[in-house]
Amino acid sequence: MTDHAEHDARVPRQRRVWRARQVAKRGLHALTAKLWSSFWLIVIVAVIMASLVALGDLSVGLALASFGGFVAAVLLLPHQNTDQEEEAGFAPAPVADRNRSPMSAVVDALPDPGILLSPTGQVVFFNAPAKGVFSSLREGSHISSLIRAPEFLDAVSAAPQTGQAVSVVYAERVPVGRRMEATVAPLGRKAGPESDILVLLRDFTEGDRINQMRTDFIANASHEMRTPLASLRGFIETLQSTAKEDEAARERFLPIMAEQAARMTRLIDALLSLSRLEMNAHVPPSDLVDLNDVLGHARDTLEPIAADSHMTLEVERFAKPAIVRGDRDELLQVLQNLVQNALKYGRPNGSVRIEAKHIPSLSQHARGRFAISVIDDGPGISAEHLPRLTERFYRVDVDSSREKGGTGLGLAIVKHILNRHRGELAIASKPKQGSTFTVMLNESQPAGDRASLSTASK
Known about the structure:
The longest helix is centred in the first third of the chain and has 36 residues, at about 1-35. The chain has helices at about 1-35, 40-55, 60-75, 80-90, 95-100, 100-110, 130-135, 150-160, 205-240, 245-280, 290-310, 330-345, 400-405, 410-420; strands at about 115, 125, 165-170, 180-185, 195-205, 290, 310-315, 325, 350-360, 370-375, 425-430, 435-440. The chain is elongated. The strands form 3 sheets. It has a 5-stranded antiparallel β-sheet. A 5-stranded mixed β-sheet has the order 7-9-10-12-11. It has 14 helices and 12 strands. By secondary structure, it is of the alpha+beta class. The chain has 3 domains: about 100-205, PAS domain (Beta-Lactamase, 2-Layer Sandwich), CATH 3.30.450; about 210-280, Orthogonal Bundle (Helix Hairpins); about 290-440, Heat Shock Protein 90.
């Protein structure tokens, strides 16, 4: 028992001593590299100081103090080329030999990022996925220049001594926020200071983002469904009990119940539309569509809604047939969503204008683009909301949106449709200056006659 206790106490002490030696060795290498890189500059300054002492009135003490301050400044300044110098003169010699080891071939074949380290923590080999994660990754550099998480560096330092694989999860904020799992495993049958180290990395960032999106979506959808359901249940219970014989209450409650049911219907329809779009996101549309036909149909269906809202709707057409490859119904839904938003949130008794422009290509070998802008003279949107407008259930004013029958999914549907059409949505808005939503689609040449077009005549 006494021998075991002494052994247990001795092992951590040896690890600390070994780690301190490694840190001191790296620090000495860094200082030497800085002095070496500034060698000629130091010599020039020394010559200048000696000249000033010999020819001028500068005292020897002041010259020595100035020279010492200059050397100290050289040592304290950050040095960007340490890694190159290490590679040139201070990197361990066995690196080249390890690159040709069978373990390098194994690391190269791994689908996940893999880095092979020397016992002192210097990069010996890495595969392509690791280079994709760390753009500055180079052989000969120390792993601490890439990953600075203390728990990871402790695992790397202890790996040759413990001989056991350790998994560490760490998070980084710069240059981009991400959460990684690093498995640090010493190589070799026996633990020892000469064992190489294998580092396998797994990036949890994308998985975390998807899980967060799924959680937010379920929470938002449940909340949006629960509100009209609770309202309907309350009215139904009232009509079944206290207002059972109250005809005036029944007449007052039924329109509200109908509106709540319509709100649920709109929400379910929007969710189904999003689901269909996501299923077909990888299948680009194949029909040829004339955007003038889409604009004409949008004007016919939206003018009565604009008149009911006491607003005016002006629709401009392209001067020539505007042919794009797309799905006519989905493109019509894009225009309807944008115009209905403009009518809902625009200025009372205001106007909504649809402008159509052809943007020619600067290259002779590429086609131009068609731009359709929906412009309103409403209160506008603050800049901080613009990047998030196409997120599901994101609203600038939640109460106003629900009051006006908005589902919070209209612009998300627009974004998904345009993604499928390889198009773009640009949003420009300033408070009190209205908003402009511009849809851009790639021009396409119709194959043969107009019989292939998906138009209203189909």
